[in-house]
């Protein structure tokens, strides 16, 4: 009957909203934990390549749904060991890669390039550049991108869900790790998020 169709629709909406709410609560809890006076110590050695491979595995259902291919470019003879907190770095890359998938057209490519680079203090950083072919970010909005609850206007208009906290969490984790993050983006061409974390 028509009533059961209507009920199904309502259940689907409630279900979707419950997930959005859960996402919001989890994000706020993550942020408050990261904000707390003593962020978890950042002293262990973390294999960034392994963290990224694990993140891609976790996100493979999302990537498959969107027919997104993810390609890692790294030098097999190089070690990508950073100083950090493994669970925080996992969260950082899951958030960034998940965004790349979410804002990309079906069937497109996300490329993740790893390099060891020297920073201004002549110390080594592990640099990860994540490039998508997605909707991009309006140039005037890039400075606000890492602010809590900020969502780019084109993301909000395109009905793609989100809390506006994913990138705030990313920025906080980068800061705790004494790293850097920057973004280059062109609307409807794509974005590159580049993260640098001190090498071990």
Keywords summarizing the entry:
five-stranded mixed sheet; 200 residues; alpha+beta; two-stranded antiparallel sheet; 6 helices
Give the helices and strands, then pairings.
Blueprint: H1 2-35, E1 44-47, H2 48-58, H3 60-65, E2 69-73, E3 81-84, H4 86-102, E4 109-118, E5 124-131, H5 153-157, H6 166-176, E6 180-186, E7 190-198
Parallel strand pairs: 2-4
Antiparallel strand pairs: 1-3, 4-5, 5-7, 6-7
Helix pairs in contact: 1-6, 2-4, 4-6
Q: How is this structure best summarized?
A:
The chain is of the alpha+beta class. It has six helices and seven strands.
Q: Going across the biggest sheet, name each strand in turn.
A: 2-4-5-7-6
Outline type? globular
Structural category:
alpha+beta
Write the H/E string, N to C: HEHHEEHEEHHEE
Q: How much is the radius of gyration in Å?
A: 18 Å
Number of strands: 7
- DSSP helix count? 6
Terminal CA distance reads 63 Å
Biggest sheet overview: 5 strands, mixed
Q: What's the pLDDT, averaged over the residues?
A: 90
Low-confidence stretches: none
Fraction of residues in helix? 40-55%
Give the percentage of residues in beta strands: 15-25%
Report on the architecture of this protein.
The protein has six helices and seven strands, in the order αβααββαββααββ. A hairpin with a 5-residue loop joins strand 4 (109-118) and strand 5. The strands form two sheets. Strands 2-4-5-7-6 form a five-stranded mixed sheet, covered by helices on one side. The chain has helices at 2-35, 48-58, 60-65, 86-102, 153-157, 166-176; strands spanning 44-47, 69-73, 81-84, 109-118, 124-131, 180-186, 190-198. The radius of gyration is 18 Å and the shape is globular. The N and C termini lie far apart (63 Å).
């Amino acid at each position: 009957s028509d009533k059961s169709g209507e009920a199904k629709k309502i259940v689907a909406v409630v279900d979707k909203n419950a997930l959005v709410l859960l996402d919001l609560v989890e994000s706020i809890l993550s942020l408050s934990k990261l904000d707390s006076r003593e962020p978890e110590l950042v002293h262990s050695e973390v294999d960034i390549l392994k963290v990224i491979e694990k993140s891609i595995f976790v996100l493979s259902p999302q990537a498959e749904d969107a027919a997104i291919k993810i390609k890692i470019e790294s030098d097999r003879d190089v070690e990508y060991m950073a100083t950090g907190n493994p669970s925080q770095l996992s969260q950082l890359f899951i958030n960034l890669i998940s965004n790349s998938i979410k804002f990309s057209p079906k069937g497109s490519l996300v490329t993740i390039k790893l390099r060891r680079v020297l920073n201004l203090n002549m110390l080594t950083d592990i640099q990860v550049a994540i490039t998508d072919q997605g909707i991009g970010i309006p140039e005037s909005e890039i400075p606000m991108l890492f602010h809590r609850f900020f969502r780019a206007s084109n993301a909000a208009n395109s009905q793609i869900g989100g809390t506006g906290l994913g990138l705030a969490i990313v920025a906080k984790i980068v800061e705790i790790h004494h790293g850097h993050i920057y973004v280059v983006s062109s609307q409807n061409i794509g974005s590159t998020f580049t993260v640098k974390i001190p090498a071990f």
